[in-house]
Structures are given as structure tokens and as C-alpha cells.
Amino acid sequence: MIELAWLIPLLPAIAFFIIIFLVRPLRLFSALTAVVAIGLSFAFSLAVLAEVIWRGISMEQPLELASRWLALPGLTVEAGLLIDPLTAVMLVVVTSVSLLVAIYSIGYMHGDPGFSVFFAYISLFVSSMLGLVVANNYFQMFFFWELVGLCSYLLIGFYLHRPTAVAANIKAFVVNRIGDFGFMLGTFMLFLGFGTFNFLELAEAFKGANPAFLTLTALLVFCGPVAKSAQFPLHVWLPDAMEGPTPVSALIHAATMVAAGVYLLARGFILFASAPQAQLVVAYIGGFTAILAATMALAQEDIKRILAYSTISQLGYMVMAMGVGSLTAGMFHLTTHAFFKALLFLAAGSIYHALDELNIYRMGGLAKSMKITSGTLVIGALALAGVPPFSGFWSKDEILLAAYSHGYAGLYVLATITAFLTSFYIFRLVFVALFGRERAAFHAHEAPGVMTVPLVLLAVLAVVAGFVGAPFVAHGFGSFVYFAEPEHAVPNITVMAVSTAVALLGIGGAWWVYGRRQPASEPLAAVAPALHRLLYHRYYIDDFYLWIFRVIVLGLGAAFNWCERHVVDGIFDGLADCIRASGRRLRRVQVGRLQSYALVIFAAVVIIVFWMALPVLGGIR
Amino acid sequence: MSFPVLSTILLAPVAGLLTILCLPEREERLIKITAAVATFVSLAFSVYVFLAYDKAKAGLQFLETIPWVQPFGINYALGVDGMSVPLVLLTAIVIFTGVFASWDMEHRVKEFFVFLLMLVTGVFGVFMSRDLFFFYFFFEVAVIPMYILIGVWGSTRKEYSAMKLTLYLLVGSAFALIGLISLYLAGSAALGYPTFDIATLGSVGYDLSFQRWVSFLILFGFGVLVPIWPLHLWSPDGHVAAPTAVSMLHAGVLMKLGAYALLRVGAFFMPEGIKFWAPLIAVLCLVNVVYGALVAMQQRDLKFVIGYSSVSHMGYVLLGVAALNLFSITGAVTQMFAHGIMTALFFALVGQVYHKSHTREIALFGGLAHQMPRVAAGWLIGGLASLGLPGLNNFVAEFLIFIGAFTREQALFGGLLSFRVIAVLATLGVVVTAIYVLRVFKHVFLGPRQAQWDHLRDAHGAEVVPIAVLCGVLILFGILPSPLVDVIQVSVGSLVAKLESAVQIGGIF
Amino acid sequence: MIGLGHYLVVAGGLFAIGLFGALAKRNAIAILMGIELMLNAVNLNFIAFNRFLAPAQVVGHVFAVCVIVVAAAEVAVGLAIVLGIYRRHLSTDVEHFDWLKW
Fold this sequence. Notes:
Shape of chain A: globular
Largest sheet of chain C: none
CATH topology of chain C: Helix Hairpins
CATH class of chain C: Mainly Alpha
Radius of gyration of chain A: 32 Å
Largest interface: A-B, 46 and 50 residues
Helix content of chain C: over 70%
Distance between the termini of chain A: 106 Å
Strand content of chain C: under 5%
Shape of chain C: elongated
Oligomer: heterotrimer
Distance between the termini of chain C: 55 Å
Number of helices of chain A: 25
Radius of gyration of chain C: 17 Å
Order of helices and strands of chain A: HHEEHHHHHHHHHHHHHHHHHHHHHHH
Structural class of chain A: mainly alpha
Helix content of chain A: over 70%
Largest sheet of chain A: 2 strands, antiparallel
Strand order of the largest sheet of chain A: 1-2
Strand content of chain A: under 5%
Number of strands of chain A: 2
Structural class of chain C: mainly alpha
CATH architecture of chain C: Orthogonal Bundle
């Protein structure tokens, strides 16, 4: 069975081509094609997971299947599968969320003119994402890494008539390109140093390698996750990416694609483990991003944007977990986050579907009219806030514990503050949007079953997914997905108590400010307008980048263009003008009278004959 | 002697040309069908050659020799090796799709197709000649019809551009001619008998200082065609002025003649000479890549954008040539193929948009994807290929070039610059490419629907052929590159072996 | 005894007359006649050299016959051009023939 794992990425790719070339005019059939293909991939993934457990394939003894994709003497690029518990978990996470989102989209995208194309893109995305997950080498990883970026580009700009959407997709692609530039150089470095891209071969080769070289390589490779997982300073694209349809935000920009960066860190963990300085950078970038994005989320009013900043912040957590050296914690949080964040987005999508409104200050009281949506949204919020026993609590606790026990006290404090901010901003959303009075006249109605069923299923997952890694489970997540040696989670009561306390404090604080008073607009704007402006404008980082682009890149382009037209072209056109001018002068010689030409010719003949006769005449005396 | 496959490829356009000459002028449809059939014959045989080329045997295959002028050692000799097979295939694909891209041609149809077929005969000839004389002969056959094609059927500033292009190329080929004649004379003197045979002349070990100067002539002469900065100005102007099919051939194939000649004559004949000039090529190629991309960002005319993107992309080919190792040169030849297909696709699409809307001003467009989804999809695929997205052919080429350049450890200009720095900076060009390609795509195809463009009809009928074929090739060799790369690398391998055995000449670099 | 020298002198004189006619005359037909005279002077030289220097061979005769043929052709073409120009411009004066100028 496991030998057929290559079918997992292939099936959605086939679905993509079938939809594009065959069934595009038949809308429902297109959706079914995509759902069936993803469903089959999901079934295969479950089978792979079962077989990994049953066969005892562990992190130390993975299963590798590879075939040659491109080979030159001294350079072999493989297309392969690397199956270990990490892959198996990721496959199940990606396919399950994809399947639920695809089903949800049948309802959400209903009536959209691009309905079929949407499902084609989703299939292509799932295929690329799965290709990335099963990759057995950095090259293949990069290959699919770029393809998921393409799908993200296509889906952000899906509503191509919206100017904001088409601006956002360019931003996303270009920012990712900058990160990928580093990632590409990193893979070149790996090839340069070790002559291979293969994960397993590289793991062997790192032993005894030059540490400075490894540090540089690791930092370059890390550029990829910085862009893809929206870490500071390349986080700017993700909030704008919310211009895409909401299922896309849930699937690509919350649950799966943005987590690919974290997955790469897990896959290439040994590289970072061999370069401690690089790992330190990873940890601090992650921690800083987590708190930075959490503060930005405080001032946003667009429901999807709040969730987007929350995603950045949570990704920061995962990256930090990788950085402090706990692969288990990072992957565990990735898994639970995929479920509860997809849930939050889909619930937000359900609200948008009903109200056609994204600003939370124009909602309110939705809990009465949209019971299922509100209920699932609250479950998602509790999971995100880290309230026990919801899934987010267990995984976040693992990360805090890892930071605490690996001796990163500063990061632990930072992460705990972030946890408080997280529960505060998410319950701000809950209290303003779902409870209290209705701030605008609207007629909210519950979404159709095809949308609510995935919501409920995700809500169940958001509750129970945490138990696989909870400390009281004997052979849990930590003994399955780990680096070097299985991690047996030892419950640390202090850490758990503190994190529960800050979560509840955050909820209480949100209720105090937003639930009790029911403000009509953002109270922070009235209390501290400067701070609010700073947060609302995301510390002006985007504006700074835009300025760099406008002034430096376009300016350089304009300068070069001027130089092209005036200097380079000027020189050559000037040369041509010189020749033309000398021709204009020289043409005076051609008087146009036949006989003067004849005279010149004759004179020339005489001179030539005389010159040839010179030796006979005895030379010039 | 077996069936002369290469002569068939070469002479099928000639047969088509002669048939068209005999047809009456008003039979436009028949003329177009004749051209399509003639180029299809070439394409079919090129595909056959590509598939039948024996990679295990390597070297020159499908040989044909007819003695021509014995006293000077000139033979009509054809043959292809791994470097020329993909380029012959490229030429055949581009001209075949080019004929379909000119299906809506209305002005002096007969003469247009006669010159077009003449042009392509020359290009085929260059890629297949084993004889230096015919190499140059076909080279000129390819350059001259271009003047007429642009001057008569062109658009913006056509006379100026046609003259500019012809002058640049003729100055270049004059330098190249001096180089080629010097090689012929020196080679024949060393061998003791006159010959124009490329393989024989290439086996002569030329004197080092001779190599240094003659390789400069070759570099200058053929470098104009690549085009190497700052001798590139003919190409954007020429691209813009030329009619669709000519732009396709021009950017798709003609520029590759220069790079091919640099490898075939420059590196193969004078390994030491090319090694001597490689640092200069490396620096200039960097200018090509970065400068070309930044200038492309500033253009307002669609065709100018693509013209400068060609300058930028051919910089990668030059980088591959300059790095002089197996990966990089294999990548350079792959890039020639990939860029040829991609840029032909671009010009075919711009041609359609221009033909229907009568403008190429980027600022005037917007939201064309609503009216022309197929054109938009084709453009997107071309654009993604251009920015080196995996899954499309150009990525494989650029990856090999970068790997090749990256693995080359050489300090240039007395340690002021290293090859790796150049490789890194050239890789940065990929980011800039992404910016301008996507910006243009956004300005032209995305955004709200505009009623003023509602009369534009999406690609249909013959117009679909170039989009489908070219996109198909890009995707096919992007997903499965090894059939292409394996053919190229067998011949590059022997070239690199020769380069490695050559000693390094110390000098100003 | 008439020797080579005499022939050369006559031929030289003839050539000079022809040259003068070709360079100085204005009438196109006269110029053509001058050219004919020069050609005939050359012919005379060929025959004379052949007769006195290499009597056994007939090289000079061959060349002379060639020149006569070429001269005839040239006159035919030349007169046709002159006639054509005359029909258009009603003039055979070479002073007016300056359309090739610039």
C-alpha cells in the first residue's frame, strides 16, 4: 500500500487536468472531480499513516522511494517519496483539511462564474502541497514550494476584477520570491558542499562539516520559511492575501501552505540542529513575529485580517518551537492549528456568506441567528486562546514548555505575553461580532448543510486533536514525530497553570472591554489614537517596503532606462550620425560628369602602370 | 546513403518557397496552407531527429556530405550533435507556430511567406552545417531577409529599426567573417590541406595569442547577435518593429544563432581563447540580466517589455557559456531552447492582442482576461516560464546554469570579484523578473472588465495553434526535462572535456 | 623596313586621338567613337606584338577578336542607351547627363 503513496499527490493533479480540459462547463461535475480526487488522497493518506504505525516505520528508519528525474555526471536530481511519521502526519493533516474545505467550497462558491476553475486551482494546490510533503530532497521541496506559491498567487487573485485582489497576489508572489531566492541559494550551497540534495544523504554528510558553512547555509534555507510562513520581516503579504475567497484563506493561508515553511524546518531539522547559531536566529525570529503580529491583530477590524495576523503569530510560535529545538512541539502545534484555524476561517466565511460584510463593528448578535457558525467559531476561538482541554492548549503548552525547559527564559516570557494577547484579540472578535447588539441592519441566516457539516467536523477535530499529544497519553505524538530521540511530554504544572491563567485573563479582559460595554467603534482609537494608528497601519512596515520599491527599484529602472535611451543608444546612433555626416561631405567628390570620371580613371591607370613599370625603369633615382 | 533527413528539414521550406512563388498572389489561403505544410514537414522530421538521435553513440549523426568546391575544401556537409538537435527542433516548432501566428496577415501575403521561409532555411542551415563555409553562408541567409521583413511588414519606426538591426548584425558578421577566415587559413596551414570541415578545424591546436585575438573577433561578431550588452540595442527595437512571426523567429531563434556560434566556433575551436575572455563575458552577462530586467520594468509598450526580457534572459545563456562547465553549458543550451519557445509564445500573444486592439500601450489595457481568457492563460504560462517557475522548461535551464556558475570557483580581476558573486547577483535577476512580468500581466489582463475592449475576441481557430503548441512544449519539458537535457549533455560533455584539458592563459583578467 | 616601333607609334597616336575624343567631346556618340578608336589601337598593339614577338602563336589574334566582339556589343548597348536618353531628353550632350550626381 505504502508503495502506492505517489498516487497521493498525483490524483489531485489528474483532477486539475480533467477539470481544465474536460469537465469545465459542467460545474457540479468539476467540483465532484476535485472532491473525489482529494477524498481518495485522504483515504490513501490514512492508509499510509496506518501502515507507518503498523509497520513500525520511525523517524530513524524512514521508507524512501526515488527515481531519477534529471541526471548529469556529478548531479542527480531525484523525484521521490520519503515516508516517515512526519510525512504521514502532514499528509493526513493536509488532505483532511483540504477535503473539508473543498466540500465547504461547493456551498461557498455556489453561483460564482469561476466555480469550475476554482476547483481546478484547489486540486492543483493540493497536488503541489502533497508533492512538497512527500519530497525526499531539497530540490523537489523547492519545486513544489514554488508551485504552491503559484496556486496561492492564482487563488488570491481569483476575483480578478477587484483591484485590491490583483495587487495582493503580486505582493504575495514577489515577497515569496525574495524568500525563495535565499532558499534557492541555500540549496545551491548544500549541493556545493555535499554534492546532493537528498535529505537522508545530507543528514549523514553534515557530520563533521564546517560549522560556519552550515550556519550560512541554514540561514539561507531559512529565508524560504520566513517568506512562506510569513515571518518578520517578510510577513507583509499574508494579511493582503485575504483578498482571496475565504476557503482559500482557510486552506492555503492558514492551515497548509503557510505551514509548509514550518514543515521545511522540520524536514531539514538536522541542518539547523547542526548550526546552533542559525537555530538561535530561527527561535528569535519566530518569537518576535509571534508577538509583533499579535499586537497588530489588536487593532484590526476586518474579521479575516484579524485571523490573518493571528495566523502569522501562531506560525511564529511554530517557528520558535523549531528554533528552541523541539520538532515535536512545532509539528504538534502545526497540526492542531491547521484544524482550529481552518475552522475559524470557514466560520468567518460563513458569516461573510450570510452578511456580505467583513468589518466586525458592523456585525453583532450573530449568535442568535447563526447558531452553528457561532458555536463552532467559539470552539475555534477557545482552541486558539489555549483554554484546556481544547487542542490549542496542549500544543501551545508543549511550545512554552520547550522554550522554558531548553533555557530560553526570554522567549518563554515573550510567548506567554503573546498567549495573553492571542486570547484577548480573538475574544474581542467573538464578543464584538457574535454577541451583544446588532450594529447594522442585516438579515443573517445560517449557511447550508454543505458548509455547516465541514464546520462541525472541524470543530470536533479542534477539540480532540490535542489529545494525541497530551502529556497523559502514554505513546502520544512525541514518541511518533520527533528529532533524535522520542519526546515524552512530562507535564509541568507551573507552565500549564500560567498559560491557562493568561488565556482566561485574556478572555476576561476582552469581555471587560468589549463584551460588557459593547462599544460601537474601536475603544483603543479613542484612548490612545497614536498607538491605534501605529498598530492599525502595521507599524508602517508595508509602507516602508512600498517606498523602497517605488524609490529604489523603480528609480534604478528609470535611471537605467534613461541611460539606455540616451547613453548607450546615443553612442551608437552618434556613430551612425558621424558616418552619415562624413558621407554627406564626401559626396561632393561625385560631380556626376561622365568625362571627369573617365579622366580620373585614366589618370589612375597611368599611375598604376607607371608604378608597376618602376622596377623595369630601374626605380626612382 | 540513407534517407537524407537533414536535407529534407533544410529543403522543405525551400520547396514551400518555390511552390509559393508559382502560386497566384490572390490565393492567400493556399499560400498559407503551403507554408504550413512545408514547415510541418520540417517539424515532423525534426521531431524524428530528436527522438532518433542516439545518445549512447553521441557525436555528430545523420551525416550528409556532397563535395562542392574541392580545391578550397568546401563541402555541403550536414550533421547534428546533441547541441544542435534541440535547436533544430526549436526552429521547427517556432516557424510552424509562426506560420499560424501570421494567419491573419493581409498585406503582400505571398512575398511575406517567401521571405519568411527563406529566413528559416538559413537558420536551419546554421544549426545543421558541419562546414564552416556553409555555416557562414546560411548565417547571412538568415540575416538578410530580416531587413525586408521588418522594413515592409513592420510597425513602429520600421525603417529605422530594420536598418539598425541590419547594420548591427552586418558589422557583427563582418568581424565574425574575419575570425572565420583566420581560422580557416591557420587551420588549413597547420593541417597541410585546405578544409572547411568544422570538426577537423576544431581539432587543430591553435597558437595561444592567435586564439586570444581571434576569439575576441568571434565573441564580438557573434556576441552582437546574442545580444551581449552594450551591443544589444538592435534587439528591442527590432522586436518591436517586426511583424509577429518575424519577432517570434527573431527572438526565438535568431538570437540563439549567436550563442550557438559562440559555443560551436568559439569554445570548440579556441578553448583557451574563450577561457581568456570568460570573465569579461561573465561581467557583461550580469549587466544583461539585471539591467535588462530593470529596463524592462520601465517600458510602456508590450513588445518592448518582451524585447528587454529577452536581453535579460539571454544574459543567463551567456552566464552559462562563461562558467564553462558541464552544468552551465548544458543549462545554457537548454535555456536557448526554453527561452526560444517562451519568447515565441509571448510574441504570438502580443501579436494577437495588437492585431485586434491596434495598440500595445500597456496603460490603455486592463481586465483583458475577461474577454480573452485563452490569451491570458497563455501569457501567464509564458510569464511564469520567464520568471523560472518549476514545472516549466526555463526553470530547469536556469537551475543548471546557476548550479554551474555557483560551482565554479574563480576569482576575477585579481580577486576583486568572484564568479560566485556574479552567480548570486544573476540569481537575484529572477526576483526582478517576477516583478516586471507580473506587473505587466496585472496591468493588461487583470482588473475590472472594461467595456471598450468588449469587441476583442478570444483566440480561436488558427490562433490557438501557437498558444497550445508552445505552452505544451514548455510544460512537457518542464515536467520531464531529461529527454531534452540528456541529448544536450552528451555533446556538451565532449566540449567540456576539451575545455578542461586546455591550459589557462594568464593575462589581463 | 617597318618594325614594331612604327606600329606602336601609330597605335599610340590612334589611342591618344581616341582618348581626346572620349574625354573632350560633348556628344555621346562622339565619345563612343573615341572609345572605339582606343579599342582599335589596343587591337593593333596585340597584333603587332604577336607578329614580332611570338609569331608561332596566335594569342594576340584571339584577344583581338575577343575585343572586337566585346566592342561591337558595347557599341550596341551604348548606342541603345544614348538613343533611349535622346528620346527622353532630346539631347546627346553629356554635360546634361548628371542624374547620377549625389
